Amino acid sequence: MDIENAIKDLIKERYGSVREFCIQAKIPYSTLTSMFQNGITNTRINNVLKICSSLSIDADALTEGKVIPVKTETTSHDLEERVTTFLNWIRTDDAIRFRGEKADPQMIQYVEAALEIGLKLARKVYSDD
Q: Where are the alpha helices (DSSP H) in 16-97?
C-alpha cells in the first residue's frame, strides 16, 4: 500500500470520510484529492505538515513511506485541548484497554462520542452568544 492510501485509510478510519476530515482540519478538500492523485511528494510542505498535525502522525516517518502515530504529551491546563489530545491518543493507540481487555472499536467510539458531546455542551453553555 502506498503512503497516500495509508493516509486516506487513516482519515476514513478516524473521521468517516475525507470531506469530514477536511472540515475538521480546515484543509481544502481539493488539497487532499490532489495529494491522493499526484502523490504526497508533490504536495506543499505546509499542507503535509498540517495533515500530519491533524492526524497526529510523524512527518519524518512519511519520508520513509511510513504512517506512524505521534505520542503527544500536553502540559496545557485547557480542558478542550486536553480532551482533543486524549481523543487523538485513543484513536491511534492500538493497545487501549477497558477493564483489562483490549477495547474494541465500538467501545472506543462510545468514549469518543461521550467526550465530543461533553465538549459540545460545554461550548454551548459557555459561548458568548
A: 18-25, 29-38, 45-55, 59-62, 79-92
DSSP 103: P
One digit per residue, the tens of pLDDT, for the chain of length 129 reads: 589 999 999 899 888 889 988 988 889 999 999 999 999 988 999 999 999 988 889 888 888 888 888 765 555 567 777 888 788 777 776 667 777 788 888 888 898 899 889 888 888 888 754
Side chain identity at residue 73, one-letter code? E
- The half-sphere exposure of 26 on its side-chain side, counting CA atoms within 13 A, is 3
Q: Where are the domains of the chain?
A: 3-62, 79-125
**Burial class of 127 by CB neighbour count within 10 A (0 to 12, 13 to 18, 19+):** exposed
Q: CATH classification of 3-62 is 1.10.260, yes or no?
A: yes
